[in-house]
Specification:
With about 150 residues, the chain is mainly alpha-helical. It has helices at about 5-10, 20, 25-45, 70-95, 100-105, 110-135; strands spanning about 5, 55, 60.
């Protein structure tokens, strides 16, 4: 009858390498990641056949049963938001350092790697949304934007 945010978060966690999250208990982790669930739901709601606005924030759940496919799409969209957050933090760090400082702290050019990963994740999520729209003909394809 409902899908908890924790269930979606559990699908998201294996898609990112963030050891800090593994050191937290479930409640702390959910507090950090719930805004990413809500952001993903906002992006997906325009084409999802379920009403992703029907939520209970106190219970931390969608008041609808989400399919595995829908939870995976939310996890994909969460990853895009997570990487966007990392990308913006990386750019802020770079702007505060000289080129020499940034090179010392990022010999592999971390910012470009994050950007490439973000673009790839965004494209993967977009393709997943298109596939969803094809398997659910009531969805309007023009509504897909990322």
């Amino acid at each position: 009858m409902a899908t908890s945010f924790s269930t979606v978060i559990e699908r998201f966690l294996p898609t990112v390498t963030e050891y800090m999250l593994m050191d937290l208990d479930e409640q702390q982790r959910d507090e950090i990641l719930t805004p990413f669930v809500l952001s993903a739901a906002t992006q997906f709601n325009s084409i999802c056949v379920r009403d992703l606005n029907d939520i209970d924030k106190e219970l931390g759940q969608f008041n609808v049963d989400l399919s595995d496919e829908e939870m995976d799409i939310l996890a994909d969209l969460m990853r895009v938001e997570w990487l966007k957050h990392k990308l913006y933090n990386s750019e802020i760090m770079r702007n505060g350092m000289s080129t020499k400082d940034y090179t010392v702290f990022s010999p592999a050019n971390l910012q470009n790697q994050i950007r490439e990963t973000y673009v790839d994740a965004r494209e993967d999520a977009k393709m997943r949304l298109y596939q969803y729209s094809y398997t659910h003909p009531q969805v309007e394809i023009g509504a897909i934007t990322l």
